[in-house]
Specification:
Blueprint (H helix, E strand, L loop, with lengths): L1 H9 L22 H24 L3 H4 L19 E4 L11 H7 L7 E4 L7 E2 L9 H6 L16 H6 L6 E2 L2 E4 L2 E4 L13 H14 L2 H73 L3 H4 L12 H24 L1 H20 L6 H24 L4 E6 L32 E7 L4 H4 L1 H35 L12 H12 L1 H27 L6 H35 L3 H13 L2 H34 L19 H39 L12 H7 L15
């Protein structure tokens, strides 16, 4: 008894009996109002940042290519000209990637013009056409590829010298809004350009920028297999529901099979290590002969390595066996709580689909941040400078190269051939541009805070619904009519500030982890062992801190949902309650985690194997209506099905895990509040009462519980 009293003093006093307590209290007030005001003001600022980004941003530069004058192709006056044509695409910088091309455009020192369609046949200017007019050679022949405003009366030779019209055309395909040559096209004879260089240029260009072909094939695969992917996701949904039903019916045998499986794996590991150790011992392979080496694989060929592994596995096997012997009663409690959680989910099936609400809210948060970041990154006024294709030609010495110009104004008369006003980039000066980094940091903070708040809100809502189930004395008669809706309104009305407080604490830790990851990325080339070691220690500590805060927040939200107190008080009460029952907490947590992991593995693995055999055509005899589609990349629908199955399984099992955690805290409170007498009967199920060896003296029709 003395030990129990000391424990009560260290971790608070147990909850006292309250005859008026019936589960989640109805008479509650708003909590953590200061945090609510702070969160509300922050959201207003977040909206203001989005408005500023929308006003000053120009995401069209990512969506649409620009011609030499800076005008967008496919927009405004070029609405009917969505593609960009490069006069000499071989002058483009090829060492780039698709994302950089989409954002910054190909850096090509050649005129660029918006066209309605890309060339489909090869063509080059013939010698006899040089003295003809642009009208006859280009416009009349349906080759509208000259720069805007070029007079039809101009000679072709002059237009080529000033680079107002292209000297050759290659069969091209639109990709990323730009005309890229075909790799298998017949290359015409071009003056000054060899066929070999053209072929190499086309091959190199398409090797680096083959995004359209891949995207088209991906689109075709999705178009061919989308309904089968939906079938796979439906299978994942059914498997998730079946596993939860299986937990309700045979949770005990499932846990037994899981434990036996873990023991069997460890036993096989011990046997394998002993076998390897015996062979190497007979061969006399010792670490004294090997010495110290950086080749880690060499340590697998010495007997001491396998002996150490054998000892570690044997110790783990012994610890697990001792835990099963001494903690068998608590494992039975965990199994009973899993069965009770399945009953609670069965009584409130709407909770299984609540993750859809969380998913939609998370999608809104991520989409808003992504659009805001994109608009901020593209803010600024466009800049134009003078440019010439060859600044070393005679007459270009005095040309104002790289100086600002107006694309709408007439190009000054100069002897420099091809001098023109071209788009260079976006102005990086101005109030918004100077604050761009700070605004992006504000956006990242907003992303983390809103996401963590949405997750916290979902946990608190589910906790309120499942607590209503546990504290109903006569189940299902005393369960509220709409427990999930009531918990949703109650949480949103009274506890937004408390959830924002917990989400902010977690956000700050996550931001610190992001900063450390960034620093670690920058220091990878430094090769400073001490700095890397210190940084690794900090990262490990922050990772542990984040896990602990998530665990504490989760239980604090449960206490908030039940008692309606502020975050700090709820976190303290939850922590004290868990510490007073630390052994039960550890056993339940591990048993639940293993079972849920086993369930996810079953669902995801089952869907993955089924998808693999179907989409690869290895399932025969299903009939014509069930034939696998012909795909370019059969792994694409398989991976989509697997990821979708993981999302569905995670959504279902997150609800189930929240139900187990809520019922567990309610169970611990029930043990402290009540004693099973007529005046203080337990709310727990009969199976839990049998495991604990306790009885409820109060009959099911006790009038006191009806009040």
């Amino acid at each position: 008894m003395g030990g129990k009293q000391d424990q009560d003093e260290n971790y608070g006093k147990p909850a006292k009996y309250d005859p008026s307590f019936r589960g989640p209290i109805k008479n509650r007030s708003c909590t953590d109002i200061i945090c609510f005001v702070l969160f509300f003001v922050f959201i207003l600022g977040y909206i203001a940042v989005g408005l500023v980004a929308w006003v000053y941003g120009d995401p069209q530069q990512v969506l649409y290519p620009r011609n030499s004058t800076g005008a967008y192709c496919g927009v405004g006056q070029n609405k009917d000209k969505p593609y960009l044509l490069y006069f000499n695409i071989f002058s483009c910088v090829l060492t780039t990637n698709i994302i950089a091309v989409a954002k910054n455009g190909l850096e090509c020192p050649t005129p660029q013009v918006c066209v309605s369609s890309c060339p489909v046949v090869p063509w080059t200017v013939e010698p006899e056409q040089l003295s003809q007019t642009v009208e006859k050679v280009f416009y009349a022949a349906n080759r509208s590829f000259c720069l805007p405003g070029v007079s039809g009366d101009m000679e072709v030779l002059e237009s080529l010298q000033l680079e107002l019209c292209p000297s050759f055309l290659l069969p091209s395909t639109p990709a990323l809004g730009r005309c890229f040559p075909w790799s298998n096209s017949t290359v015409p004879e071009l003056t000054g350009i060899s066929n070999t260089s053209i072929s190499q240029g086309i091959s190199g260009l398409l090797d680096g920028l083959n995004g359209r072909d891949i995207s088209v094939k991906i689109f075709e695969d999705f178009a061919q297999s989308w309904y089968w992917i939906l079938v796979a996701l439906g299978v994942a949904l059914v498997l998730s529901l079946l596993f939860i039903l299986l937990l309700r019916l045979v949770a005990g045998p499932l846990v037994f099979v899981l434990i036996v499986g873990v023991l069997g794996v460890l036993a096989y590991g011990i046997y394998h290590c002993w076998k390897e150790y015996s062979v190497l011992r007979d061969q006399g392979a010792s670490i004294s002969q090997l010495g110290i080496t950086t080749n880690l694989s060499a340590y697998g060929k010495v007997q001491e390595t396998w002996l150490a592994a054998l000892i570690v596995l044997a110790v783990l096997e012994g610890i697990l066996l001792l835990m099963l012997i001494f903690l068998r009663q608590r494992i039975r409690i965990a199994i009973s709580l899993l069965e009770e959680a399945s009953k609670a989910v069965g009584q409130m099936m709407s909770t299984m689909f609540y993750p859809l609400v969380t998913f939609v809210l998370l999608l809104i948060c991520i989409a808003y941040w992504a659009m805001t970041a994109l608009y901020l990154a593209t803010s600024g006024q466009p800049q134009y400078v003078f440019w010439a294709p060859n600044a070393t030609l005679p007459g270009c010495e005095k040309a104002l190269m790289n100086t600002s110009c107006d694309p709408l104004a007439q190009t000054p008369n100069t002897s420099c051939p091809g001098l023109m006003c071209v788009f260079q980039g976006y102005l990086s000066k101005g109030l918004v541009q100077r604050s761009l980094f700070n605004l992006q940091i504000y956006g990242v903070l907003g992303l983390f805070w809103t996401i963590n708040w949405v997750l916290a809100f979902g946990q608190c809502v589910l906790a309120g619904a499942f607590a209503s189930f546990y504290w109903a004395f006569h189940k299902p008669r005393d369960i509220p009519t709409f427990p999930l809706s009531a918990a949703f309104i109650r949480t949103l009305r009274y506890h937004t500030g408390s959830l924002a407080f917990g989400a902010l604490i977690l956000t700050l830790v996550q931001i610190a982890r992001v900063i450390l990851e960034y620093i670690d990325h920058k220091l990878r080339g430094a090769q400073n062992p001490m700095a890397r070691c210190i940084l690794c220690c900090f990262k490990c500590c922050l990772w542990c801190l984040e896990k602990f805060i998530k665990f504490l927040n989760r239980n604090a939200y449960i206490m908030i949902a039940i008692y309606g107190k502020n975050f700090c008080v709820s976190a303290k009460n939850a922590f004290m309650l868990l510490m007073r029952n630390i052994i039960r907490v550890v056993v339940l947590d591990k048993v639940t985690d293993l079972l849920l992991f086993f369930g996810k593995l079953l669902v995801v693995g089952g869907v993955g194997v089924l998808s693999f055999f179907f989409f690869t055509g290895r399932i025969q005899g299903l009939g014509k209506d069930f034939e696998n589609p012909h795909l370019n990349y059969y792994w694409l629908p398989i991976m989509t099905s697997i990821m979708g199955a993981y999302v569905i399984a995670s959504g279902f099992f997150s609800v189930f895990g929240m139900c187990v955690d809520t019922l567990f805290l309610c169970f611990l409170e029930d043990l402290e509040r009540n004693d099973g007498s007529m005046d203080r009967p337990y709310y727990m199920s009969k199976s839990l009462l049998k495991i604990l060896g306790k009885k409820n003296a109060a009959p099911q029709g006790d009038k006191k519980r009806k009040k």
